[in-house]
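Cont'd.
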Amino acid sequence: MSDLHTSLSDKQSSLSDEQTSLSAQHTSMNEDQTCNILLTGVGGQGVVLLSRVISETAHRLGQGIVVSEIHGMAQRGGIVQSVVRIGPTVNAPMLPSKGADLLISTEPIEAYRARQFISKSTVVVTSISKLVPVPVILGLQAYPPMDKMLQELEELSGRLVTLDSRVMAYELGNSLVSNIIILGAAAGVRVLPLDTQEMLQTLSGIVPKKTIEANIEAFNRGFELANK
Amino acid sequence: MEHLLSKEYGTTMMVLGNEAIVRGAIEAGVDFAATYPGTPSSEIGDTLFRIAGKAGMYFEFSINEKVALEVSIAASISGLRAFTFMKHVGINVAADALMTFVYSGVTGGHVILSADDPAAHSSQNEQDNRYYAKLASMPMLEPSSPQEAKDMIKAGFELSETLELPVFLRTTTRVNHMRAPITLEEIIPPKKTGEFKKDPFRFVNLPSVARANHTRLLRQFEKAKEVVETSPFNTREDIGDSPRMGIITSGSAYNVTIDLVKDLGVPVAVLKLGFTHPFPEVMVAKFLDDMDAVIMVEELEPYMEDQVRVISQKEDILTPILGKHQGHFPLEGEYTPDVVGKGLTSALLSLDAIPEPGNQEGDAASTSLDLSVPNRPPVLCAGCAHRAAAYYIKKATKNQAIYTMDIGCYTLLIQEPLKTADALFCMGSSIGLACGFSKIQDKPVVAFIGDSTFFHSGISGLVNAVHNRHKFLLCVLDNRTTAMTGHQPHPGIEVKDDYHDLPALSITEVVKGLGVEYVREVNPLDVPAFKEVVNGALAHDGVSVIVAKEPCVIFERRRRKRAGIPLDKPYYVDNDKCIGCRICVSKFGCTAISMIDVEGHAKQKAVIDRESCSGCGVCAHVCPSDAFIQEGGQ
């Protein structure tokens, strides 16, 4: 977990204890063997690619799978959401409130916006790299305070993993792998009922050949961060 | 090898609903397909445009949905299998042809797909097109998954050929954009040519023929009423032992319902209807009779619910029917698990079938904080030429004009800071509205329309403007593609590849040909030239047309990358020159520009995001202090 997350936890010691026990109870699947994943972010951040890696891996491994991708006007910088449900009897590619086992977000506001889907059995993996919405640039609305957003996400969820994916991607020398670092972190929290090597195999089959190595490195960087 | 043309029969493949529809059309050996792009059906056309040639199928992007249906009708009354698909509002455009086409019917097969958009994710309304099937007496199928969509398009062609009627395939966004596995089945190769057997007393719908054809249609539709009762798409599934509680559902609402009922704690029988017009009356009457109560779960209008109520009255079956009429379920938006869960709870509570829920602690997801979250609306891209055109037209009209808007990316001009969108209803409406506004009041009127939309339905409005002597400025935002729906070509674009050799029509020449006296083609990124043309157009006494021509910035960037052509160099801000006036952000609003604190300066300074800057340079014209400078420039 990131330093920021740790410092937040320290501030709320009473909550942290409760969360530790909840985290320990959390298994990779809920009772009916279904894993419900909500991916959210901003158009252009590669949310649909993450959704594809997860869903195609699950399909190759013979698991039941249903996915929704709402594109709409996403290409123009709007919100992109994808629901991935893995399990023997999944039909609707939508989640009820509090219905996510795993929330993966490529932007902190979007994780916060999706908080209705979070419960104490949700693991939240979100980038804290800001992508400032246009109304904020225009001075019409404010970007919410990061610490308050993360504090609330932490209170609502079973576990919160935050990472500054943009900075980490720059450190790796490739600004384009930011989303793959987040995917790696999502794999690292061990909620997905998927073998990590299988996910890497799917990823390698989707991304351009010459970028495979960079993508695997990015995935592993995220994985290590979350798998602590 | 295109994966959707794979002959590995029996294997499964994860595909988008729209790709499953394409695969279904290919397996069915569709000979002829046409569309006008529109979300949520767009990927069907994108995919067919790429692979139809290899599959031996004829496919075209027609100029609008009516023409798409008409060209396809020629094929399906010539013994071929024709597939016409569009978004829900496209059916409104095609409806004139459709309502009489059903009178004559087909000699081949015809499936017409309507992609409805509950919640209007990317549409101007959320109309329920199931009523078109009823209005036109067309058999209708409603899939709930990609596999079912593929099965239904194939079954639709068989049904169409049996009944000699077109078949309506009604999808919704959640099905079009659902990704799930499909099983590949055998591909039937298309025929090469059709044969039209002349039969004017069937295909020429003058009044006497129309009357006879209407009788024919009703007779054929009677046959459909028999077929529907044995359809494999209408099935009953019992959850729990000997259920006395029934649910009738369809499409996307079925998926949500079946996931929820397992946890209801009440045994239920779920009647899933996939073949919904004609309505399976015998099956539903029996279901009503078997149940103590029936709950209707369907998105949008009470299309099925009303028919179930008719059956109840006609057959004298007094089973309570619960749905939208008692307010248990909404008439709008998507049926999410929360919406369906709430509706089912409300219906079951009214029947005393479940206990009152206790005060569920922490039911609401809100906590003590609940921060206000800024909106993230889709916006015009950095460097989009539409922004420059609207900015300088707004300036020239001193923001005093009425701006009529049309459908495309440029609809986003409704937003801050440009806000040059005052009225919009449908494709092409900018021009008709401008005609009317110019007659009823004295303010200047400016209509905006895109290039593809101009061909779709702008031309007739412009003829009207010329003939009736309306006075307004029409700005055709010609970005050389159908950008909003995913960069499909249109008649203004030359298309040359292995399977196409299509010429381009010049919008300027079309406009001149219509008799418009003031016509100028100009690049809005060439700011001085554009400003001059706008002033000239506004001074013209009559309708004037500016063709604001500059390729879509995303499309152009991709084209250059593919062709190895270098991109234009981005701009940067000279902090010593920037006076912090914010005009570039608060008035122009290019998304590559924002304001930041700079050490040693009291006021915030503009800053450009290098990654998103396209190098268009309009900011340098917008800026009053020459603070924007191109990299590598002076």
